[in-house]
Amino acid sequence: MKLHLTLLVCVSALLTTTWLTGCSRNSTPPPETPRVVKLETVATDRSNATTHFIAQVRQEQRAELGFETSGHIESIRVEVGDQVRQGEVLARLDPEPGKLRLEQAEANLEIAVAELKQQQAQASQQQHMFEDGAVSATTLTSVKTALATAQARYRSAQSERELARRGVRQMEIRAPFGGSVVARLQMPDANIAAGQPVLQLEGERHPQVIALLPSDLVAQMHIGQEVHAYRSNMSNQPFPLRLRSVAQHIDGGATVQTIFDSAGAAATGLHSGENLLLALPRSDEDSLSVPLSALVPGANSSKTTVFVYQKNNATVHQRQVITDNIVDDRVHIRLGLSSGEQIVAAGAAFLTDGQSVVPFSPDTRLTSNATP
């Protein structure tokens, strides 16, 4: 009985092993379901024929005003926003120190005049005595030297008096041109140093537009070129500007300061400090572009790739590209793609090189294939 039981167990184990082995040989893993992707055909980008930059309005005439001498501010006669006329007194220092310096300079000049007259008289007298043989040439030379010294002191005293007079005039700040006060940097009764700013003044009716533009774009522009600008509250009403000048210095190696003029009716209503939107023609108008979502950055951010669709075998292959400017949500491609190729426009980050895909369309169905 035990022998028959042992034999039955062995036969059962052998049959079970054979059955399992047969199942493992005949079963195959289910095929991987292709991923649905959204494709876009690469084409010339003409929808972004212009690119936009922020610019700021300022007046052509601008000045930061201060006193030429140090002193105590007696009064500031204007406030921010006040309109001023050319030559109008805007601020004044305490005049007493200036008046005292002028009186001292005038007194020193009087002394120098008296000394000069005395030396001139002595020089004339000694000259006659020398001609009569009463004095030596050495004595005459000494007298002439003293006369030259007196003449130098006289000229120095004259200069000091003129400087003192100028100092009195500089006790006042006068408007160098008509305009408006845009900043008041000091208060009355403050003590300030020479040249320290007190007021900022801007002219009127001569607005300019200042913009920092990419150096490669500026290199293709010319003086007098017309561009269009938009105000924030009138985005559908462009007005013309003309390029007036370009700075020779490149800021940070990438941007250049440019100045545009606006004349006539176009300049009406522009306010200093107002931001505008410049619309400039693109130099790469015929370049290719792809959506930002199509780009896959490399591990070290030094390489950027896209997935290109191969229609013959319904797979995607990763390809490195060289990018250029970014405009809105699209990136211009300098190298790596050709017009007419299809790339994955969305979901590229989840793909692998050579992966099978199915182009997305409204009637795409994969659920029936995926169901066992």
SSE map:
Blueprint: H1 2-26, E1 35-41, E2 50-59, E3 62-66, E4 71-76, E5 83-84, E6 89-93, H2 96-131, H3 137-169, E7 172-174, E8 179-184, E9 191-192, E10 197-202, E11 207-214, H4 215-218, E12 226-231, E13 234-251, E14 255-261, E15 275-281, E16 288-291, E17 296-297, E18 304-310, E19 315-327, E20 330-335, E21 342-346, E22 357-359, H5 367-370
Parallel strand pairs: 1-22
Antiparallel strand pairs: 1-21, 2-11, 2-15, 3-10, 4-6, 4-9, 5-8, 6-7, 8-10, 11-14, 12-13, 12-15, 13-14, 16-20, 17-18, 18-19, 19-20
Helix pairs in contact: 2-3
- Topology-level CATH name of the domain at 35-47 and 286-370: conserved putative lor/sdh protein from methanococcus maripaludis s2 fold
Number of helices: 5
Main sheet: strand order: 2-11-14-13-12-15
Oligomeric category: single chain
Distance between the termini: 47 Å
Please provide a brief summary of the model.
By secondary structure, the protein is of the alpha+beta class.
Walk me through the structure.
The chain is α+β, with helices and mostly antiparallel strands and 372 residues long. Among the domains are: 98 residues, conserved putative lor/sdh protein from methanococcus maripaludis s2 fold; 86 residues, Beta Barrel (Elongation Factor Tu (Ef-tu), domain 3); 75 residues, Orthogonal Bundle (Helix Hairpins), CATH 1.10.287. The protein is built from 5 helices and 22 strands. The longest helix is centred in the N-terminal third of the chain and has 36 residues. The radius of gyration is 44 Å and the shape is elongated.
